[in-house]
Amino acid sequence: MKQGSKIFVFMTAGIAALAGLLFGYDTGVISGAILFIKDQFKLTSSVVETVVSAVLVGAVIGAAFSGAITDRFGRKKVLIITALLFAIGAIGASLAANVGGIIAFRFIIGVAIGVASYTAPLYISEISPPEMRGALVSLNQLMITCGIVVSYLVDYALSVGSNEWRWMFALGAIPAIILVIGMVFLSESPRWLVSRSMTAEARTVLARVIPQDKIEEEMRSIQGSLTTKKGLWKELLQPWIRPALVVGIALAFFQQMTGINTIIYYAPTIFEFAGFESHKVAILATVGVGVVNVLMTVVAIWFIDRLGRKPLLYIGMTGMAISLGLIGLAFNMPSMTGALKTVTVLSVIFYIASFAISLGPIFWLMIAEIYPLNVRGRAMSLATVANWGFNAIVASTFLTLTEKLGKAGTFWFYAVICAIGIAFCYFYVPETKGHSLEEIEEHLRKNKGLRSLGVTEAK
Ligand code: BGC
C-alpha cells in the first residue's frame, strides 16, 4: 500500500475513532461524578440509578433509530451530527441547574453514544482495505478504552470540591468539537456513495485508498453487492442473512453477559468487597484496570489481522472464564486473607486483559464485517441495540444478583455464560480475517454456513 494511502486511511480512522473516545469518556465519567451529584442534590438511590442509567437508555434508543438514518443520510453526516450532540450534552449537563437537567442532557449524550457506537466502526470498516480492516476498526475500541481511563483520571484529579462534577462533564465537549471539525474534512464512505449512485465520488475516494488499477474491480464488486433491493427491516429475516444476524446478537450477548461492565462500572465496589478499605486504593486499582484494558487492546490490534479473530476469541474467552472462576473462588472462602486479596486483584486484571484481546474489539469489528451492504446499517444497529440492552440488564442486576446468588455465585454465573460463548464461537462464528467485505457477503449468499468462511477459504 502506498505511503499516502496509508496516511489517509489512518487519519480517517483516527478521527472517526474519536467517537469511541467519547463513548468511553462519557460512560466512565459518571462513576466519579455521581458521588458529588448525589451529595449536592441529596438524591435517593433510585434517582441515582436514573442518573446513571440515563445514558444506557439513550444509547439503546440512539442505536435503534439511527440504522436507517445512517443508510439514508450517509456515515459522515451522521457522525458530524452525533459529535454535535455529544458537545451539546456535555455542556448542557455541566450547566444543569437541577437533577432533571442532568438526566435530560445525559440522555442526549446516551443517544449520541448509541449512534456513534456503530456508525464509527461501520464507517471505518467501509474505508479500510481488507488487510488492515481489523486493526483500523479496532482503533475505535482502543479509543473507548482510552476514554475510560481518561475519565477515571479526570474524576480522580477533580475529586477535590463539591462542584467539580460540572468540569468532569464539560471536558467531554473538547473531543466532541475536535470530532466535528475533523469529520468535516473527511470523505464519505465509498460503499455508501455507490449505494446512492454517486459513483464518480466513490471512485475519487477509492483512488485514495487502493491502487488505480484495482478501482474498477472494487467498484464492480461493491455494485454487485447492491443488486438486491434496498434493505428493509424484514429483509434481515431472509434465510441467508439470518446466520449473520444470530452471530451479531449472540456476540453482543456474550460481550455483555460475561460481566465486563460490572468490572468497568463497579471495580471499586469489587475491590472493596475484596476487603480494600480505603477508597483511594480502590480507585487507584481501578485506574490500573483501565490501563491494562488499553494496553491489551493494543496487543489485540497487533494480532487481529495476523492471527485472526477466532484464535483471539478462544484465547481471550478461556482467560475470562478462568479468571471469573477464580474471582468466584476467592469470594467463596470464609474470610479474605492477604493472599486471597491478591488473587482477586490479579484475577480482575487477568480478566480485563483477556476481554481486551477478544470480545472487546472483536464484537464491534465483526458486526461491521458480516452483514451484506444493503442491510448493513440496520443489521449493525440491531446488534448495537442488543449490546446496550444487555449492558443495561447486567448493570441493573449485578448488585441484586450478588445478594441472591452470592458474590461467588454471580461470578461463576458469568463464567458459565463465558464457557457457553466459547462453544458458540466454535460452532457459529466465521473467520473474517483477510476477506473483503464483498467476499464475506458472497459467502453468505451461497448459504453454505457462515462458519465455513474461514475454514474453507482462509487465505
Ligand atoms: C464494550 C463496553 C465496555 C468496553 C470496555 C466495549 O467493547 O462494548 O460495554 O465498557 O468495551 O472496554
Which characteristics define this entry?
single chain, 459 residues, mainly alpha, Growth Hormone, Chain: A, 2 domains, 22 helices, 79% helix, binds beta-D-glucopyranose
What does this structure look like?
The protein has 459 residues and is mostly helical. It has helices at residues 3-16, 18-28, 30-40, 45-73, 75-95, 99-127, 130-158, 165-170, 173-184, 190-195, 199-209, 215-224, 242-257, 260-273, 279-304, 309-332, 338-356, 359-367, 376-404, 406-428, 437-445, 452-456. It is globular, with a radius of gyration of 22 Å. The two termini are 18 Å apart. The model has no long low-confidence stretch (mean pLDDT 89). Beta-D-glucopyranose is lined by residues 141, 144-145, 148, 255, 260-261, 264, 293, 360, 364, 387, 391.
Quick recap:
The protein is mainly α.
CATH architecture of the largest domain: Up-down Bundle
CATH class of the largest domain: Mainly Alpha
**Compounds present?**
beta-D-glucopyranose
Strand content: under 5%
Helix content: over 70%
CATH superfamily of the largest domain: MFS general substrate transporter like domains
Helix/strand class = mainly alpha
Query: How many domains make up the 3D coordinates?
Result: 2
Tell me about the largest β-sheet: none
Mean pLDDT across all residues, rounded?
A: 89
Shape field: globular
Order of SSEs: HHHHHHHHHHHHHHHHHHHHHH
Number of strands: 0
Low-confidence segments, given as residue ranges, are none
